[in-house]
Amino acid sequence: MKAVAITFAALIALVASVAPAQAQNASPKIAVIDVARVFAEMPERDAISQRLEEEFAEPLAQLQQLETEFEQLRERMQRDQAIMTEEELAAGQEELRQRAAGLQRGGEQINQYMQQRESEERNQLLEKMFVVVDAYAAENGYDLIMDKGRMLFSSAAMDISDQIIERIVD
Question: Scanning 2, 41, 61, 146, which has its CA 20 to 30 A from the CA of 140?
Answer without folding.
Answer: 41
